[in-house]
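Figure 2 data, in text form.
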Amino acid sequence: MKIIYFMGKSASGKDTIYRKVKEKLNPSPKEIILYTTRPIRDHEENGREYFFVTDSEIAKMENEGKIIEKRVYHTVYGDWIYATADDGQFDDNSVYMTIGTLESYVPIRAHFGAETMIPVYLEVEDGLRLERAIARERTQKTAKYEEMCRRFLADQADFSEEKLKAANIIKRFKNEDRECCLKEVLSYIEHEL
């Protein structure tokens, strides 16, 4: 089993690069679907981007020992939980892809083993990242700029150099030119597989 694990600050292009990699790799990796209690966004679908669940459903999975890692974000809209579960979606002979945080990467690596993981850390200059985040919010029915700003600031601490080093994230991909970044990411993944 291999897990291609995309990480990066908000609006670093994780979703875009992830989708392009999924299209180009053959065979296409299976997706790890995370669980979240946050509200579904426009154009999202339950079971595609996330499993959208309640707090009590997460608690039930925890009691059953299925939660590998769990994070709680204290947003301006309340607490939102994100979790990865060993819920039957993994098998030893497959390649998987997911998007997560540095905080979630470490326990997943501990659960499955470092040799299983292919970390893909995307980074973008902060000004460009902020422009992308604002542009994304403008496409929503109800823009949540306050939450966007909270995430932007929280990412500075969540992806600090100290935390990247502690998680042994060495390889980084600059995502200012998406096509160049995609080529570099694909080359790296194909080498690691």
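Caption note: The domain at 2-32+90-192 is CATH 3.40.50.300 (Rossmann fold).
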